[in-house]
Specification:
The protein has helices at residues 17-34, 40-50, 56-61, 68-74, 77-86, 108-120, 128-146, 231-241, 270-278, 281-287, 289-293, 298-309, 320-331, 333-336, 341-360, and strands at residues 150-151, 159-163, 196-203, 209-218, 243-247, 262-266. The protein is α+β, with helices and mostly antiparallel strands and 362 residues long. It folds into three domains: 17-86, no CATH class; 108-277, no CATH class; 283-360, no CATH class. A hairpin with a 5-residue loop joins strand 3 (196-203) and strand 4 (209-218). Helix 6 runs antiparallel to helix 7 (128-146) and helix 12 crosses helix 15. The radius of gyration is 23 Å and the shape is flat.
Length: 362
């Protein structure tokens, strides 16, 4: 779980310049990858703001112990967001740079479906099958237009494993673990109502698939010219976790005319997820779970189940050190600090086994 921000009044001596740069470099690198169009000098100032300082100079003059872990736990994307706006960058509530691209408008046949729904919903008792069919058709058309994947189908027997909404590591911001961690894995976007979830499939060698949630359409009761009260909070959570958040009122198919539609969508497209998945540690764990469980200790079983079920583990981790840097540090600090060496050792040995087996197979 994320640690509390260190006191600004610490009496400890400031770190050397080299230590200072080394502590902040990983954070700066993550922000450079996340905001490639922002000037480096502006990003440096925004980083200082994210850590709670008025300027980079004030940060450098601070006596705050600048260990990388303390810097990460202090970082607040909302302060970075405000500083980038001060530099006159156009930043959306979900911390995307630039004006939102113009969204597609509903085609004529879709508008006909909405009109029919609006009429049917006035007296729905005897027409529920038609209402449900129209809502499914609208959801499918919306998913196709916005490239969301397919509607979640809990009855699909080809799905071996389902992951809910997870952190998108190509687009997330530092300190995402403050919003989701090992003690509370669920991602909650405030204001969500009447959600329709969309999924993408990742193949398994046995012909079945793993599905992950790629998008979610929320349709709260709000007038079409308004936004849900919690929208800005939800958008900022989405931006921190690497998701986008956009409003498409004219597409809402639930209680037509009385709801708006808020779309939450992963940043990383399915093709990139598929490339990362093909030779990933995660896929190897899913496909070898039964074998790895044989004669396993209780600790080993728990670690295996955690790895297989967790939707937040990056698909593209390259080795154990990379996993500690990008996953444990944010998501499971006790493992990063090695306070639970038994669990940590099991995790490390599983990654080593994966590396040995995949290298041998090439």
């Amino acid at each position: 779980m994320a640690q509390p921000a260190p006191s600004r009044a610490s009496s400890r001596a400031p770190s050397s310049a080299a230590d200072f740069e080394a502590s902040l470099r990983p954070l700066k690198n993550r922000l450079l990858a996340r905001f490639p169009t922002v000037k480096s000098s502006h990003l440096t100032e925004a980083l200082a703001a994210g850590l709670g300082f008025n300027s980079n100079a004030a940060l450098r003059a601070s006596t705050m112990p600048m260990s990388e872990m303390l810097a990460l736990a202090s970082f607040e994307p909302e302060r970075l967001h405000k500083r980038l706006i001060d530099f006159e960058y156009e930043i959306q509530p979900d911390i995307q740079v630039g004006a939102p691209s113009e969204a597609p408008t509903p085609p004529a046949h879709y508008l006909d479906w909405l009109q029919e729904l609006q009429e049917l919903e006035k007296s729905p008792d005897r027409v529920w099958p038609r209402i449900k069919a129209l809502r499914r058709a609208c959801a499918d058309e919306f998913a196709k237009t916005f490239e969301l994947g397919h509607r979640e189908d809990r009855e699909d027997k080809s799905v071996a494993l389902r992951w809910g909404p997870g952190v998108d590591h190509d687009g997330c911001l530092p300190n995402w673990g403050a919003k989701v961690n090992a003690h509370d894995r669920y991602i909650d976007f405030p204001g969500t109502d009447h959600p329709q979830r969309f999924c993408q499939a990742l193949p398994l060698a046995n012909g079945k698939v793993v599905e992950y949630e790629s998008a979610m359409a929320s349709m709260p009761y709000v007038a079409s010219n308004e936004l849900p009260r919690e929208h800005e909070v939800a958008a900022r959570i989405a931006g921190r976790l690497g998701w986008t958040c956009s409003v498409h009122s004219e597409w809402s198919w639930y209680a037509v005319g009385n709801t708006t539609l808020v779309l939450f969508k992963r940043t990383t497209p399915r093709a990139s997820m598929k490339r990362a998945w093909d030779n990933s540690f995660k896929r190897w764990m899913v496909e070898n779970r039964s074998r790895l469980m044989k004669s396993a200790s209780a600790t080993r079983r728990r670690v295996i189940e955690d790895i297989v079920s967790c939707q937040h583990l990056p698909l593209d981790v390259s080795d154990f050190d990379d996993c500690r840097e990008r996953y444990f540090k944010e998501f499971a600090l006790s493992m990063y600090y090695a306070e639970d060496p038994g669990t940590l050792l099991v995790f490390k040995r599983l990654m080593e086994k994966w590396a040995d087996e995949t290298d041998a197979g090439r």
